[in-house]
Amino acid sequence: MSGVETAELAALLMELKDRSGLSYGVLAKRLHMSASTLHRYCRGEALPPEFGTVERLARLCRATPEEQAELHRRWIAADTARQRERERKGPPPRPAVPVETHAAPVPEVRPQGLRVALAGAGVVAAVVAIALLVGLLTDGGDDGSGEGDLAAILDGGQEAEDAPLAVTTRPYAFDQCEGRYLVDLPPAQVPPPPTETDAAGWVRALEAVPAGEQLVELAVQGTGAETVVLRDLRVRVTATGEPLPWELYGGYSACGGGPVRTSAFDIDLDAASPRPTAVDGQQGPPLWVDESEPLVLYATAHAEERSVEWYLELEWSSGDRSGTLRIDDDGEPFRTSAVGDQREMNYMIGGTEWFDAETGEPVSR
Questions:
Q1: What percent of the chain is predicted at pLDDT more than 70?
Q2: Element (DSSP H or E) covering residue 348
Q3: Which residues partner with 323 through β-bridges?
């Protein structure tokens, strides 16, 4: 575990929890997790796999904006330390999912020292598919192994670890809880929609593709005291095609909104040459990081006309050194597809089946 960094995050979580006057049981129920898991987070025995969990806990405990910013800084520091520890140990073995598949053809804000740039499967019995997916989602648990890490390749044949910065990628971040996905499986073989923590495992187990929009989060931090300038962020499209005609699954019905993004990068994947654009009048690259000043980028990619396979390139320089990091989905391109005229299916919180979003009727097949 990430030692000192995780302990510092846990200390602030415990302070907020005690100040709220709410029990572990009450908070855990509202966060849709077990009380024992929440207890481990607050004692520094485990690190939340994504910041959304910390953010929701902070809101429940009525944390101030300054406290939320400090929580974000501490989580990034702990998560970066966790990534370094994983790199030393080597990647964990990936669980096999025996499902037959078809191959498919920031501006600067400084609260409390933090800068945030907001940028066919074959027929398988439903009970087997669900059991396999549950096994995948729970594997790795609190260490966040279901989340996609940076696949980084430097120009010039250098090794990724030579770069004076670390980037952690979440390719299926949530802006709101109702993410939409295209899945080449019938409703009977698709488990309930994922939480943000479980999104990466859910998507990969089902070979789902984000429908219409994909939010990618990049946490960037220098690995030393020297300043690293982020000179440019580029989009590379590797393949395009017709929108996928698969089943369209939405998220939980009647679910609340996600965190407010004060700025973001927007990517129009339908453009001839897609490029990240800082929206809301915010500043784009060049930006900078070092080990004490992390940076979080949010890039929202939209596809309304086609399916697109793509990845990002982050160009950096530090002194007389420079390079480019490829940012993708665990070694594979991101995939985002426009939606055709499919019906959309949703799932009620606490429900037991998918239903037609337009009619409200349960979907039988």
A1: 73
A2: strand 344-348
A3: 316
